[in-house]
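#lab-general

N.A. 3:47 PM
ok so I finally got the sequence cleaned up, no stray characters, all 111 residues accounted for. can someone with queue access submit it? mine expired

B.Y. 3:52 PM
send it over

N.A. 3:53 PM
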Amino acid sequence: MSVPRELPPLGSLVEVMQGRDAGLVAVVIGHLEDRFILVADGSVRRADKPKKKNVLHVRRLSHIAGEVAEKLRIDGKVTNALLRHTVRMFLEERLAAANQRDQGGAFHGEG
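B.Y. 4:20 PM
back already:
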């Protein structure tokens, strides 16, 4: 039997890879058992009804939302507005980095 993956910490951003929500970028807001997490993005999946996902069906992204993690640690809950803001900021940063990479480093044959 394969070794289960380590659960991403609370506040981590993940991309859902399988299921109805495939492609959705969401925030980990809870852990269940040894291989399941609860994810929500504040709009499609709201904080009061998060989606239970197998950790094998999500891809960890390289971002942890510190503010979300702190709210979960202190209050045990988070608002949909904060989740939407977190996901939106991450996607905007990723888009800006991709645009900068496309414009910046490559030689376009001009000269």
